[in-house]
Amino acid sequence: MIPINKVKQVRPSSPVFSGLLYALVTMAIGTVVTSLILFSTSMQESSLLGYAYGIHALSLFVGGLTAGRRSETRGWYHGGLLGLLYSTIIFIVAFLAYDAGFSKQTLILLGLTFASGAIGGIIGVNARR
After folding, report:
1. pTM for the full predicted model
2. 116, 83 in Cβ contact below 8 A?
3. In 3-state terms, what secondary structure has residue 8?
């Protein structure tokens, strides 16, 4: 048997891919927590759009931090690219699952994810030093 310290660890080499994994995990956790809060309290579903934007912004910030730390340079670029990739994936899922088209909310989400990812990438690069 190989000792645990001799086994190679599997880590994504691309900063954008690793940031995307962290962002998707954060989004899943935020979605579960929000749905539990919605279920257990008297929170109205009409305010859910604001919470959804908050979850997306937080998850992209965490993903941007990860991408910035892994890239070590150009954090805004990697974080912004992560935001564009993330919003494209969300748009494709919404289009295929709910037949949602391109709208004003899509543009808001695109701008929010780009900005959150870029800010997270900037802070991630500077937190590395």
Report:
1. 0.81
2. yes
3. coil
The reply to whether 7 falls in a domain is no
At position 61, the amino acid (one-letter code) is F
Tokens for 75, please give them: 């954090």
CB 106 within 8 A of CB 65: no
Handedness of CA 18, 19, 24, 28 (dihedral sign): positive
Give the residue among 73, 63, 82, 76 at the shortest CA–CA distance from 119: 76
Count of domains forming the chain: 1
Question: Do residues 123 and 76 lie in contact, with contact meaning Cβ atoms separated by under 8 Å?
Answer: no
Amino acid at 96: L
Full domain range(s) for residue 54: 16-128
Run means of pLDDT, 10 residues per run, the chain, 129 residues: 63 83 94 90 82 91 92 88 91 86 86 92 84
* Strand ranges inside 1-129, DSSP E: none
